[in-house]
Amino acid sequence: MSHNERPVVFSCAGEQLLGIVAAPAAPASTGVLIVVGGPQYRAGSHRQFLLLSRALCGAGFPVMRFDCRGMGDSSGEARSFEALDEDVAAAIAAFRQNCPQLERIVLWGLCDAATAALLYWERTRDSRISGLVLLNPWVRSEATLARTHIKHYYAQRLLQGEFWRKLFGGRLGVGVALRGLVGSLRRARRQANEGGASDEMPFQQRMMRALENFPGVSLLILSGDDYTAKEFLEACQGDPRAQRALAGPRLTRVDVADADHTFSSREWRQAVETATLDWLQKSMAC
């Protein structure tokens, strides 16, 4: 299917943001807005966002990817994933202006951009958002990291015979590992005891609330070999709202076995493209 890519410049809180719109010749009424988080710009790691955009556009879905303020070719100061509401709202407006046939918008994000998408909807309840594609959502806190290390690193180490042989042989590295385990246990316990001390709900709780309450459909894509994905699942186990969302009919989960955090191989990137496209075609009427 023929398509074209064109740059768009749009305003956000007095700054100029740059986006790239990929528009099919016969576009669907559902478009995908790729939200970019972390220290990245619109191409993505390993050009993932660029390649995804072209793959989806080739199947008939308009796509826009853009640089948030302070990143890539956009002006302004960089900001945290918890402060991207204005950027996302401005990008949605620019996307609809450039693709006026759009009736539904799907927010697509990796890592803290996935979390930013959830937080955006949780704060704005934007009715233009019909779907969310969330890859390895970011839930990092001292407690989640500590629990993940305990379960997925130290638990495995304690089952290894070589670990105990080194321990009783007086090897220094094992002592360091044991001190790390004790430190992780203390951090997890300390944050659990301090939970609820602040009047403001932590972003992890707000994103889980959004995951449950979002009235549209969601696609959750998790890497099989990624601590961020493991932390997310650990956080979900401790949150009834997340458990209900994961078990509910509006959320589809896809696991990419052995994939790392950024889906760095062609095979893993294509798995993400296929999962996203299949979900769009099944969940979003064109």
Account of the 3D structure:
With 286 residues, this protein is α/β, with parallel strands linked by helices. α4 runs antiparallel to α6. It has helices at 48-58, 85-98, 112-124, 142-158, 161-168, 172-194, 203-213, 227-237, 240-247, 266-283, and strands at residues 3-12, 15-24, 30-35, 63-66, 104-110, 129-135, 217-223, 251-256. The protein has two domains: 3-140 and 202-283, Rossmann fold; 143-194. The protein starts with a strand and ends with a helix. It contains ten helices and eight strands. The chain is globular, with a radius of gyration of 21 Å.
Brief descriptors of the model:
8 strands, single chain, Rossmann fold, alpha/beta, 2 domains, 8-stranded mixed beta sheet, 286 residues, globular
Low-confidence stretches: 194-199
For the largest beta-sheet, the strand count, sense and barrel status come to: 8 strands, mixed
How many helices in DSSP terms?
10
Q: Estimate nothing, just give the exact number of structural domains.
A: 2
Mean pLDDT: 86
Strand content: 15-25%
Helix and strand content put the structural class at: alpha/beta
**Termini distance?**
15 Å
CATH class of the largest domain: Alpha Beta
Percent helix: 40-55%
> What's the alpha carbon Rg, rounded to whole Å?
21 Å
Under CATH, the topology of the largest domain can be stated as Rossmann fold
CATH architecture verdict of the largest domain: 3-Layer(aba) Sandwich
Widest sheet: strand ordering: 1-2-4-3-5-6-7-8
- The total beta strand count reads 8
User: Helix and strand string, N-terminal first?
Assistant: EEEHEHEHEHHHHEHHEH
